[in-house]
């Protein structure tokens, strides 16, 4: 593929037949013709990383989104193919040694041990977010962290068309049984929503729900519509399909059924929001992606876009300015700039908090008001979503200004607070409270409420 201007559309020939989906995994690394240009050492390093962290890509990404003339510098290549630096040196060497040993049991044990050291359950996902029914029945296929929003993980949607190298839900895709959120029964979801009328938003997530056949996804959605829940206002669907397989909305065999399901939601008077994960503007440059957006919007659904800020992929202000401007032009709503979560390959992708704020500020200043709906940079941490609002000088001290956008305790939302200025800090537990305070307000209030739990231990230890 030739190098292109990011604003140039790549049209799909009208006469071309709809492509069949083909996925590639670790064992294909040495067979893909596009990878033959890479050195043997590079391919071997990619293989080692892919034994620990999930790797999956498909023919659309390989053939349309990556500039193979500069593959190692291409943002979509870095986004989808394993990179050697994604494992720390000690972890990499341990796995490489286990591979050379030829002992399968030793290799599997080594891989498992490394995975367990990568913080597979950040932000209290397993021990703090899993809800239960009033009779005590746990619901491991759901999360309920913020009052108004419930996450639902349909069991058939726990994979994706391709995997992102930074993915914070990587345990969903590897052999960590305790790492998977999944539920097959819509009945339990509806029972929970009836017991919690304060919930206004249902987020169907994964994996990627749009990996499911339309018939299966419709069964979940139609069950919710039939239940006629008075408090429910919005159904959100979290997906990367717009980037990784836009044919899902254009030419798949069941595309008409999928679009009809989406239209049923909006015709019932509910708001349907497709929560698209778009990490770089190059994902929105193909003709089929543009057609997919037109088809989605024709159902009455809204498309909101979010992404983490990632070193080596989108860590320049112009990356975000161009992305947000392109999204507005296509009718998308820029939603969030996140920070790389403290799990998996965070050490490889994370941008320091101060630098993240500088990138966001410079990027957003170059957009019109329609793109300034993008919030961030934000950490989805254990206490809640925390925004880096800026750097200020207070009492002759330079400090980080922070704000809780969403809190595990709803009373915390939109509370400002301050941390000591630290150019190296990557995450909340790297920060110290400013002005000599011993703890942040949410730590103090959580302890006062008798809720001193694991999710605050890392913060307190800082």
Task: Describe the 3D structure.
With about 450 residues, this protein is α/β, with parallel strands linked by helices. The protein has a domain at about 25-115. The chain is built from 15 helices and 13 strands. The protein has helices at about 40-50, 60-65, 75-80, 90-100, 105-115, 185-195, 215-225, 240-245, 255-265, 285-300, 315-330, 345-350, 355-365, 440-450, 455-460; strands spanning about 25, 55-60, 140-145, 150, 200-205, 235-240, 270-275, 300-310, 335-340, 375-380, 385-395, 395-405, 415-420. The strands form two sheets. It has an eleven-stranded mixed sheet. The longest helix has 14 residues, at about 215-225. The chain is globular. The N and C termini lie far apart (about 45 Å). About 45% of the residues are buried. The model is unreliable at about 1-15 and about 450-460 (pLDDT under 50).
Entry keywords:
462 residues, alpha/beta, two-stranded antiparallel ribbon, 15 helices, globular, disordered N terminus
Q: Overall 3D geometry?
A: globular
Query: Major sheet, described briefly?
Result: 11 strands, mixed
Count of DSSP-assigned helices: 15
Overall SS class: alpha/beta
Into which percent range does the helicity of residues fall? Answer: 25-40%
Q: Give the tally of β-strands.
A: 13
Radius of gyration: 22 Å
The residue ranges in which pLDDT falls below 50 over 5 or more consecutive positions are 1-15, 452-462
For the terminal residues, how far apart are their CA atoms? 47 Å
What fraction of residues sit in β-strands? 15-25%
Task: Indicate the mean pLDDT.
Answer: 89
Strand arrangement, largest sheet? 3-4-5-6-7-8-9-10-11-12-13
| Order of helical and strand elements | EHEHHHHEEHEHEHHEHEHEHHEEEEHH
């Amino acid at each position: 593929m030739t190098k292109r201007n990011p604003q140039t559309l790549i049209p799909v020939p009208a006469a071309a037949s709809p492509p069949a989906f083909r996925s590639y995994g670790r064992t294909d690394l040495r067979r893909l013709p596009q990878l033959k240009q890479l050195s043997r050492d590079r391919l071997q390093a990619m293989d080692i990383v892919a034994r620990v962290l999930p790797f999956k890509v498909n023919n659309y990404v390989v053939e349309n989104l990556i500039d193979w003339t500069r593959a190692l510098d291409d943002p979509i290549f870095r986004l989808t193919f394993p990179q050697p630096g994604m494992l720390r040196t000690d972890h990499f060497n341990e796995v490489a040694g286990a591979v050379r040993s030829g002992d399968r049991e030793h290799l599997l044990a080594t891989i498992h041990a490394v995975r367990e050291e990568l913080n597979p359950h950040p932000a209290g996902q397993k021990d703090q977010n899993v809800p239960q029914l009033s009779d005590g029945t746990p619901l491991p296929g759901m999360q309920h962290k913020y009052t108004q929003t419930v996450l639902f993980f349909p069991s058939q949607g726990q994979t994706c068309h391709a995997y992102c190298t930074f993915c914070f839900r990587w345990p969903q895709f590897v052999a960590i049984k305790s790492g998977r959120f999944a539920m097959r029964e819509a009945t339990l979801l509806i029972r929970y929503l009836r017991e919690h009328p304060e919930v206004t938003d249902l987020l169907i997530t994964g994996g990627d729900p749009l990996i499911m056949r339309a018939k299966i996804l419709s069964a979940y959605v139609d069950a919710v519509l039939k239940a006629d829940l008075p408090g429910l206002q919005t159904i959100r669907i979290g997906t990367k399909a717009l980037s990784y397989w836009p044919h899902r909305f254009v030419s798949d065999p069941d595309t008409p059924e999928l679009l009809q399901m989406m239209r049923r939601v909006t015709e019932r008077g509910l708001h349907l929001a497709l929560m698209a994960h778009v990490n770089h503007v190059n994902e929105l440059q193909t003709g089929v992606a543009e057609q997919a957006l037109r088809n989605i919007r024709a159902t009455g659904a809204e498309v909101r876009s979010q992404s983490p800020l990632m070193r080596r992929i989108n860590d320049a202000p112009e990356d975000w300015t161009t992305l947000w401007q392109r999204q507005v032009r296509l009718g998308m709503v820029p939603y969030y700039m996140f920070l790389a979560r403290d799990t998996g390959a965070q050490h490889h992708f994370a941008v320091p908090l101060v630098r993240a704020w500088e990138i966001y500020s410079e990027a957003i200043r170059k957009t019109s008001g329609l793109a300034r709906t993008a919030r961030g940079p934000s950490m989805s941490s254990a206490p809640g979503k925390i925004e880096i609002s800026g750097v200020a000088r207070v009492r002759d001290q330079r400090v980080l200004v922070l704000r809780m956008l969403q809190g595990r305790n709803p009373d915390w939302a939109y509370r400002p607070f301050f941390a000591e200025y630290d150019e190296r800090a990557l995450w909340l537990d790297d920060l110290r409270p400013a002005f000599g305070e011993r703890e942040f307000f949410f730590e103090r209030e959580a302890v006062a409420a008798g809720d001193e739990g694991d999710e605050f231990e890392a913060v307190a230890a800082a």
